[in-house]
Design brief:
The chain has 25 helices and 30 strands. It is of the alpha+beta class. The protein has an 11-stranded mixed sheet with strand order 1-30-2-3-7-8-9-10-18-19-21, covered by helices on one side. Helix 12 runs antiparallel to helix 13, helix 16 crosses helix 20 and helix 18 packs across helix 19. The longest helix has 28 residues.
Length: 799
Amino acid sequence: MKKLKKTGIVILVILLVMLLAGWLFVESLKPDYDGDKVLTHLSGNVEVYFDPYGIPHMYAENEEDAFRALGYVHAQDRLWQMELLRRVAPGRLSEVFGRDLLKTDQLFLSLGIDDATTKTLAQYKKDTPFIRLSEAYLDGVNQFVEEGPTPVEFYLTGLDKDPFTMRDILNSVGYMGFSFAMAHKTDPLLTSIRDRLGGEYMRDLEIDSDSSTLGIKNFPPAPKGMPNSIPAMVSEALEKLPIPQFIGSNSWVIAPGKTRKGAVILANDPHIGFAQPSVWYEAHLSTPTYEKYGYHLAGVPFPLLGHDRNLAYGITMFENDDVDFYYEENKPGDSTQYKIPGGWKAFEYITKKIKIKDSETVSFTYKKSIHGPVLNGIAEQVSGESPISMSWIYTKLDNKVMEALYGISHAADMATFQSALKDIHAPGLNIMYGDALGNIAWWATARLYQMPDSTNTKFILNGASGKDEPGDFLDFTENPHAINPPWKYVYSANNQPDSVVGMLYPGYYLPENRARRIVELLESRSDWDREGVAGMITDITSSVNPSIVANLSRLVDVTDLTNEQARELDMLSAWKGDYPLGSIQATEFHRWVYFFLKNTFEDELGPEQFEQFLLTHFHKRLIAPMARKNSSVWWDDITTKGIAETKKDIVHSSFVDAMESLASDLGTVSSNWTWGTVHTLEHGHPIGRVASLRSFFNVGPFPIHGTREVINNMAFNYSADGHYKVNSGPSTRRVIDFSDIENSISILPTGQSGNPFSPYYRNQAALYNQGGFRKMMMNREEIMETAESLITLIPDTDK
């Protein structure tokens, strides 16, 4: 008995020791937001106050020290995110996640971002201000890498921490340039549809920037190839990417003449793929000569969004076309050479090595033409007799994006701000601007180039003829822009921009839905204030969708419906186009539109190509026009021989399909068909893909209001199961009010920290889902009074 008792005591002691060890281990993983810390290279003390939402407010005597402090606290909260982002461009994700990411690494290596970074680094001069501040930021990052707690993800993946360099910063910015990959999903798909079905089938696809020029005549015969495999390859590679992608965005700036207090108000909500942590890291830096409240990408020192007491700026995606695909013509009997005007040229062969976790290093080789990498052979899906190469402007020109980010973050007025924008060659961005003097402006930033009149860049071009090559670049003054327009506001919602030189710019623009709603609301009043703009940025009503219902519902044969179906059609016809959680009509609308698209297009495209079609922007652009049109070659179902279906047939059968599928999936009682039941948001962490760790790392899922292409743009892909998992939306919502700058407001989707043991990991999620906001504090006294903690960074006097 005594031995048994002793054994029990020993076991209890062991358990207590294990529990204590576990507790100490967890405690060691938590970010430290309090106390004194010694930082190498500091010239003086830096005080870092963390406000109630974990936002650091840094006070230093000079900019270098402020950016060192930024690097340190940024790494403390987001080191894992920084680690993943720097690995995308050089193809190093397989080192972390294994062979499952091999195709993703192959794609990004072949894009040439890392090679372009090498060229850029060779041109940098060390004594330039943006280099000095970038190196200061890296000092802080690397001191945390060396001395700070190791994030739990590094333990779970067996990954070692390594120092960060300027290469990592540039590669992170380069990923942003490619993140908008719509050309890869669109051009090859349209080429395949055109070549297989003919030009007549292109007329209703809303693919041209200028609707008066269809650009579908006189196509040369396409070489033999497999262009449709490119979007499949790109979609598969990006689906596994553990980093969110830039998608779209809203922004508008209101001039003093339309605001209640006579001061500029700027609103911005960049639309980016949802993930955990969310994309932006907020930080407020203040020195005697510099102040900025900014939003930073992981591992990038200068904010892409920001404001101070003098000016504010935001971004949306321009959606311009900066990627062109070319068929290359192999030399007969010699696939190592391809045709160029006047002769033949040897392909360049590039070999890359990819380290794979728990496996052997993989070596792969791809070809490169004068246009860019040849996609055939990069992944097994892209094969065929004709090489298809990709020309991307990001890797073609000198990269001055970092100089531009430094310039706009340090601008003192509109003139110096504008002068920095010409250095942004890619990705195309709409830069929105407002200042305390009452100026408002919008500039589309990108190096735009002219193509021959007969060339439609939405299709794979002829690489051998020399007739489909880019012409001159436009001067930056010819880019779309508006400065202090007489209508007293500027806006951008990824819509087709107006021209300033009599030409429209090819792109992958989204439908006018959000833009129309923004204009409709802005025109409705001239007394805008912060609260009104906050309500507008969370608007969940579509001005377009009720008209789609009206155009479709008149074609439904009510005599062929059940009583329940007829009642639902009546209620849907009275719908105002809003998307609260309890809306039944919102659910019915999207189920009907899905079947309308499916029954219209899938018979010609086939199931696989139809799924790729649903991943493009142009399918969104054609929904409203197709609802209006009475005739289209697409209406006929080619699987029903001898029967020529009409639009009325398609619309009616689609409504019946929608009602029957809702009854099957959600039950026969329509009160259960609420929007919040099918429209949900979950912020996924890469480790959260492991089922047992999902609830710890992921945030959500939540039922969420809004929908795609309303201002509160909670986007999703249509799917056969009728459940709409939101994949992108407002990555932050900001309202900057120059009548009361210190009470400007914002919100993040989950929280400031990417460390799951931090109290700031998910503490904004509920407020975000409710459409709420919190203050962006800039008043030092208020910050000191309300701060939850303080870190004092002290110079290392021994070094």
